[in-house]
Backbone:
């Protein structure tokens, strides 16, 4: 069997002969992809409303998770800690608007982008200073999240599904649906889309940019908290998690910076793609592909569809 | 509300007064020491050659720019600095020279966006879309539909405005401003780039808005015919300086104005 057979034929034969493994891999990929999608969603919310590419989104995920666990560890009851963490994320949104966005309004995008770098390191420093830098365990049980796995016998084999992953999928779907309704059907949602389309026109009808910014940063903070809880449950809570935040970049390249459905579909494609590649093609080159495969997908997309799957096509009138 | 061809009648009290306003960007003086007023219920035109400072003046009035000198009194209240959304909640609406609509949203949503400030139910009720928040949404929807009828844009209300032709975009933009039920409506070249028929339609809407809703209107326009027909009083700017102020007929025969438009022989 030549290498061409191994690359182009054999993986598909394996998928056909062991469909249970295929479905298992698909599910694992979807769960990972969903978490990438949530991080990307946080980016998109902020980018749409303020044009700021928020480099700190990934760190906000860790910061939220760390605040939650840290508060619990110093003796705050789990649900109170959750409430307090939500309050902290609101405080963060408020502070970011006051201290970072407002003084820099009308500055070039790159300045705001650099400011979010600053915010990233501030959050890392503040998080470690207050709660310590050692990895912590997410308080899934205390929040009544299910644990353990269920197994299904289908397709001539066994598929095992973590209950926690199912819970994550359900909660993420509810949250995304809630955000979608909120942003399409309410006054504030309309104001937010208005700000995304034209700052000047939004101001002229009496929309306060400051208020909208606080709301989107808070929404992004909530998304970060949910992401942090589920990601933290799969590994430890520590700032090492920030590498997953970088995975949001290829997701954004796929989905486009301004599209919420794009973030979700992009996240799923990256998640499933990298799991599939790792499982079926990885062994050919010694494995370890999930560290880089997402970026390869993104590169291919940049070559052929630079505006992303759902991004706005930029047409310059001359 | 001038009788056609008749003399200018004082329309009402002063709604907005601009006093000795100067605005410069670095070394460039956009507006220097300009004063004029806008009275309740009138249509006030601001005209002048390109670069005269007309749009800058409008931007000062609705708070986009803050003048270095002078002050603006609106509804008897003098103010030093105002943010645009505060101007909006105070009752000043505007349209833009280069249409600034929410391009991704439908015509209806754009007009509903104009009602943002009139909606008061909080966030939480809106999330639930329940009870009072729902009733409020329905009530505002009704007002939006009235404006859509008024501007005769029923067929396009579900169309994303980015796909509409320019003339209709201008009309939607006027609708969004009217939806705010403003006391003062600022129109920045509402007829720019329109053909004759579209201009006539737009003139009709401006006059009707002034008549039916009693909205005070300040407009910038280049088409002298339109200005003469629509406005009660005209202020003329040239290079940031006020060179004339008065009834259309007066302004038209003013030598300084003719010089500004046609150039002076040196």
Residues:
């Amino acid at each position: 069997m030549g290498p061409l057979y191994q690359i182009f034929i054999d993986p598909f034969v394996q998928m056909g002969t062991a469909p249970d493994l295929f479905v298992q891999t698909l599910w694992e990929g979807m769960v990972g992809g969903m978490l990438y999608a949530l991080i990307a969603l946080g980016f998109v919310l902020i980018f749409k409303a303020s044009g700021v590419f928020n480099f700190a989104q990934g760190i906000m995920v860790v910061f939220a998770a760390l605040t939650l666990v840290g508060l619990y560890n110093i003796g705050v009851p789990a649900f109170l800690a959750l409430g307090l963490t939500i309050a902290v994320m609101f405080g963060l949104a408020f502070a970011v608007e006051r201290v970072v966005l407002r003084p820099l309004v009308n500055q070039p995008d790159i300045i705001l982008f650099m400011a979010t770098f600053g915010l990233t390191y501030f959050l890392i420093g503040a998080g470690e200073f207050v709660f310590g830098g050692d990895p912590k365990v997410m308080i899934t049980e205390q929040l009544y999240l299910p644990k353990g796995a269920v197994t299904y016998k289908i397709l001539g084999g066994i598929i095992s599904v973590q209950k926690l992953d199912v819970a994550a999928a359900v909660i993420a779907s509810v949250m995304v649906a809630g955000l979608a309704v909120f942003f399409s059907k309410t006054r504030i949602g309309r104001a937010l889309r208005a700000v995304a389309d034209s700052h000047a026109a939004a101001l002229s009808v009496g929309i306060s940019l400051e208020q909208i910014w606080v709301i989107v940063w808070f929404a992004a903070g909530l998304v970060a908290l949910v992401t942090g809880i589920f990601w933290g449950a799969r590994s430890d809570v520590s700032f090492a998690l920030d590498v997953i935040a970088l995975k949001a970049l290829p997701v954004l390249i796929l989905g486009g910076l301004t599209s919420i459905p794009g973030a979700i579909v992009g996240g799923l494609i990256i998640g499933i793609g990298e799991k599939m590649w790792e499982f079926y093609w990885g062994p050919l080159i010694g494995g370890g592909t999930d560290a880089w495969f997402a970026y390869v997908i993104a590169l291919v997309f940049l070559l052929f569809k630079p505006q992303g799957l759902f991004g706005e096509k930029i047409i310059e009138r001359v | 509300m001038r009788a056609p061809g008749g003399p200018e009648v004082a329309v009402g009290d002063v709604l907005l007064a601009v006093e000795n306003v100067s605005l410069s960007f670095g070394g460039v003086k956009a507006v220097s020491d300009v004063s004029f007023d806008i009275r309740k219920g009138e249509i006030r035109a601001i005209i002048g050659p390109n670069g005269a400072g007309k749009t800058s003046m409008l931007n000062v009035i609705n708070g986009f720019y803050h003048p270095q000198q002078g002050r603006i009194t609106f509804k008897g209240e003098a103010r030093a600095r105002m943010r645009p959304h505060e101007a909006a909640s105070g009752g000043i609406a505007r349209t833009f020279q280069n249409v600034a609509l929410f391009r991704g949203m439908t015509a209806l949503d754009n007009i509903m966006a104009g009602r943002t400030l009139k909606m008061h139910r909080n966030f939480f009720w809106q999330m639930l879309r329940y009870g009072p928040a729902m009733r409020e949404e329905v009530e505002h929807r009704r007002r939006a539909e009235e404006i859509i009828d008024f501007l005769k844009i029923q067929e396009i209300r579900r169309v994303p405005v980015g796909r509409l032709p320019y003339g209709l975009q201008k009309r939607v933009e006027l609708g969004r401003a009217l939806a705010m039920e403003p006391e003062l409506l600022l129109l920045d070249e509402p007829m720019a780039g329109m053909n004759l028929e579209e201009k006539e339609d737009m003139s009709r809407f401006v006059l009707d808005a002034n008549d039916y809703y009693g909205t005070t209107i300040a407009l910038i326009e280049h088409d002298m015919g339109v200005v003469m027909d629509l406005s009660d009083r005209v202020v003329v700017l040239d290079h940031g300086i006020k060179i004339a102020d008065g009834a259309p007929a007066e302004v038209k025969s003013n030598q300084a104005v003719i010089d500004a438009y046609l150039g002076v022989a040196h």
Remarks:
- Residues 151 and 245 of chain B are 31 Å apart (CA to CA).
